[in-house]
Amino acid sequence: MNSIDEVQAALARQDYICGRALATVLFLALRLDRPLFLEGEAGTGKTEIAKAVAASLGRRLIRLQCYEGLDAASAVYEWNFAAQMVAIRQAEAIGKAPPDLFGDDFLIARPLLQAMRPDDAGPPVLLIDEIDRTDAPFEAFLLEALSDYQVTIPETGTVTAPAPPIVILTSNRTREVHDALKRRCLYHWVDYPDHAREMQILAARAPEAAESLSCEVVAFVQRLRSEDLFKRPGVAETIDWAKCLLALDMIELSPAVIADTLGALLKYQDDIQKLQGSSAKRILDEVRAELAT
Question: The whole model's pTM is what?
């Protein structure tokens, strides 16, 4: 990808529609071999961009899903203790010395080690998803791993990537990630798309939807995001809702069908209850009035 326009076009071919600001920071991350830190509300497409980049470049996507309690060993490697025990017993049974128990035959490579190993297709895309779910010690470990692009296995030594992997970190901002980690990355806040871009996204992901239905769906979701909700619907929910409406052969919204399908948009009962009754009709009326002007 030799230009920002090429980045946008390549992602669009993977049905990922992004604005120029996001395409610019991604272009710079690729050009400068810098990790890209994407922060924003859940459902705004942070994870999907890693998949689109990997598909665009023909690279392997390696995903490290973060969670509370994740440690360096779980993210880098594990030894297959069961296989080691079998090898020892087999060697004892035939009276031979056991094989090298710390060789590749017994090594289970986890995402970070996989990303550091050579790949014939080129450096892989390493997605470190929801880094905000981990704790400070793992962040500190990542500082070293992403600075030198190497990890250490005490029994065998250090593995250094022949070329830096393309690293994309995401955060839903459930807590603040340490500045030291952010400084090693290019940063971009991924916001909800505006109406025009969400229409483009829906056209790419649910092309069978009529434009009139898509327009109502997008306008309704955009209006819904301004309501006082515990969890606002993301782009993924917009796409899911449109596909649900298509599955029901709907050609336009109505208060009844909105009430019946709110579960595709909202994932908390309190939020759904707020939209029951006259609220959905009120929002739909407002949306249609805006679209008519």
Answer: 0.87
